[in-house]
Amino acid sequence: MTVDLLAAPRPTTAPAATGPAGPRRVLLAPITITPSKPLTPSHLKGLLWTDVMYRATRPLAEVHYRYSHTTYHPTEQTLGFWEFLDRTQGDTDYQDLTEQQIGDHYVAFRAAGERASARALRPYADAVDQGWVHPASARILDLWAGQYRALGLYDPGLRAHQPPGHGLEEMLAGLTARGLCLDHRRLDGPVHLDLTRHGLPLRQIVTADGRPNYLACALRELVPLAAEFDEIVLLYDPELDPDYQLLERVLSDLGPTVRRVPVGRVPIDGSIRSARHGGWGHQHAGPLLAAALAEHDGPTVRLGMRLYFIAVLGPGQGQSFRPELLRQCLTRAGRLLSSGGFGAEADPAALAGLLGRHRRDHTYIDPYRLTSSLLGKRAAAPSRELLTEVFV
Questions:
Q1: pLDDT digit string (tens) for 292-343?
Q2: Is pLDDT of 274 > 90?
Q3: Of 99, 192, 201, 269, which one is least surrounded by beta carbons within 10 A?
Q4: Looking at residue 189, what DSSP letter applies?
Q5: Does domain 19-165+225-391 correspond to CATH entry 3.40.50?
Q6: Contact by Cβ (8 Å): 50, 30
Q7: Of the candidates 75, 63, 76, which has an alpha carbon nearest to the alpha carbon of residue 28?
Q8: CB-count exposure of residue 191 (10 Å: 0-12, 13-18, 19+)
Q9: Positive/negative CA dihedral, 126, 130, 136, 137
Q10: Does residue 192 contact residue 208 with C-beta atoms inside 8 Å?
Q11: Contact, 372 vs 56, CB < 8 A?
């Protein structure tokens, strides 16, 4: 018999870790996922990794989880997709489409290799500023919200209008004042982030016709927030490491300690493929959750998913997705959650001490170290408080 952890009272939050000025303030800033496709195993890994980091660090510090789709909608990847849909699909009702059907349109968009003009994308960018989201992406976000609930993921505002603190021009002016920007737009050229004095390469962040890339959007969001925090944790795809080195350098100069945490993708049949190429089959959140929930209850699925995508796959990307190992983790989770599988109840101070073992010189808790500790052959049975606070 499995204990219903959802019916158990939520534990009291443990005392926060403090510095000279009070509790440490931590900003978690994971890379966002464009709302244009299903959540693949790689996406699930990153989301679960961030969720456990957030929930495990929260008892020890003041933690803010910043995840704003509004900030990154202005990229050409998103606006171009919306323009493509309107041009090729017309006035389509997306409410009855699945994320895979919408994802098929996204694959077609990327395969077409077309690049809409800045003039064609301008109305979409202006509408985003007012809180508008294309119906196809709104549908995707609605579907993701349901999957977040099933996975027990904290929702940082999937469907909320959360504009960045700086407009594009304000952000560029700030970089220019710090000597970090080469703006050639007056010469019909692009804008570059210039960290060459730190031994880092020039990086274009705005095209000559005014289109910002992902890094420009990240700077709009994180630069105005940086001074409010003691530590900023950037979670991202390892392929973007050069950009995140630049972002770390810019933010570090504003005061906080910046931690870069790359989370490797999940290969499928030995190959790491971008979601833009499709080929998801049944290996995405919807079917995976449906199959798991057909055999296990909600808490078991939530814990089992974390055991597999964090502890078994680890931080790298050397191990392909294996459904049989996921099933084994779900079975193991059921045993951990069984009525005989709980250790003694922990008070907040004990929980803080347990969690604190899984960090080094940083404030945040390492999800891999913490989650792996549940799988050791000699590991003590986890307390109800640890499970409810962090894993289910």
A1: 999 999 999 999 999 999 999 999 999 999 999 999 999 999 999 985 444 4
A2: no
A3: 269
A4: -
A5: yes
A6: yes
A7: 63
A8: buried
A9: positive
A10: no
A11: no
